[in-house]
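Re-running the complex after MR caught last week's input typo. The corrected sequence lines follow. Everything else is unchanged.
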Amino acid sequence: MQSPRSRFELNRRQLGGLAGAMGVYLAMPGFVGSSLAQEAMDSAKIIKGKASGLIVHNEKLGVMETPLTLLRQHKHTPKEILFNRLHFPHEGEAAWYATTDAPDKPDWTITIDGLVARPRQVKLADLAAMEQVKRVSVIQCAGNGRSYYAAKEKVAGGQWKNGGMGNVEWEGVALRPFLEAQKLEVADTALWLTAGGWDQPATPEGSDFAKSYPIGAKALDNAILALKMNGEPIPAVHGGPVRLIIPGYYGNMNVKMLTTLLFEAAQSPSAYQSVGYRMPLTPVEPGQFGANDYTIYNSEPTYAHKIKSVIFSPLAEDNPKAGNVEITGVAFNDGEGPITRVEVSTDGGKSWVDATIETAESPWAWHHWSAKGKLASGTNMLMSRATDSLGRTQPLDGLVWWNPRGYLWNGADRVEITV
Amino acid sequence: MRRPIRGTIRLAATLSVCLPLQVSAANIELPDGQGRDLVYGNCRTCHDLQYLKESAGISSRAWGDILDSMRQYGLRLEPDVRGSILEYLTTYLGPNPPPATAAKPADTGLAVLDGKALFGDNCVACHQEEGQGVAGQFPPLAGNPDIFASTEFPAIVALHGLQGPISVGGKEYNGEMPPFDHLSDAEIAAVVGYIRSSWGNDKNRPKDFRSINTDDVKVARENTMTPEAVHALRAGLVKQ
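Corrected-run output:
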């Protein structure tokens, strides 16, 4: 079996001393050509309020992920280190959202329209006056782990490792009761709910961002119009003043800076719904299925989190010694059933032990787990694999779900440790 | 049960103080080669070049797919331009890139350069074929008094970028122009000359206005500025 993680961990380990000491991380593990080496970009200078030392994937779009050494320190991922991904440049009129400060937008209005007899406009103050509910949920970029697909064939885009995720407490107004109370009189022909945000493409020809969900989707039962993140107004860069949060859904589905909710007969024609952020329904092979071969019939949007586990410790940066070691990490899924088993291996999958799993804070939060193991002198391949109460489990080889846009990596996690 | 990781490092210690966002991050460079200008001129409207660098190593087929998919995100390319960009990406950011080339030969300033071709490679994606710009997005260069603000000013903008709200011809613009400092001194001088003599701009040339030369560009290049500082410089030069 191939080991997608190891070839990248090697790079990280070679640089480990430098990276650990200076907070500098290589953003381009698979990069070729030493003449193109450049200084690591400082995440704190791209989005105001972000910590230094996040792994930057794109400055102009504020794309950055959290090193696991930071991520693992917090029960709820703080705004200073939470991964970020914008779809349009945070420049000019859009510069206001390049900050972890709360947006100063007291007149924010959400328009609810489409196939309804009574369209509505709802103000931020109206939402704030309604009953607020909490949802602790993992939020994760659909591209998290994209770099690991390179072991089969590298795919274009930001080469995310495992840090495009966080465990966050959201608070806001429950979506379904809210929509009921608006007395919209939705037409029977409405089958989709489409969410849109304030942000706009850099050129008039570019597709605007929108996300559509089947109106009956079970996940919408738990969705909220969130006003708070980790107990404070949602930072602008993370989608304030109002973000649609659908617990258990990938990050792109949780529309930032929410301005419109439309009831429609068909899903949005936005390229971000119809071509981008989709997964083929069946496994595909490089060369046989390309980035433009997605249709609404052969693929589906990146809705619900696939079951996943990530090893938090030990990492190569921890320089563990040979002998007994506690292996820890997190596991999560779409919230449809709890994580019931996490298996851990220190010998690349030859033998496994069951980890002890902590009860998670909510169905969508991550479960912490830990297991005892032993590191031998030389190279050890740590692995973890989660299973849930519905019998869903991670593929031992995540490459079976290789796809040309590199989404939804959920292979059994692998960390190579040399002691 | 123990916490997954004991808090040996407190968050406060790992977080930097919130700094004003004045310093641009690293200016990303791609390998020098035929077609690079087209990449610089067309791809940076929506995202910076790190996506290309991080994607380095993908197949020619995958690069072609990416170029085609970018149409939906707003990219408009003539077939020959698409071909040149794809050739560049496949050659220099493909699975088997050539070894890094030696440094560019010294810029003698004597080469005859085609300002129109340079404009087509580097500027047209935003400022458009006839220099008309895109309303509300990218300011026009046709009829834009900025280009005669001083002998060096357009070269300063090209070399160091420009960020901040501006008004041109009564319309507001608030985008960010990235630096095009990968162009040589002679190339910058040539493209500025082309812009100043095209689309009727020559009519606006002030009397006794001194044309730019490569030495002017060299000096402007050495005097490094942030895009915000260029914006401030403009405020002092251009009547709003």
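None of the earlier attempt is carried over here. The helical segments of chain A are 4-14, 16-22, 68-71, 124-129, 175-181, 271-274. Chain A touches chain B through 76 residues (CB under 8 Å).
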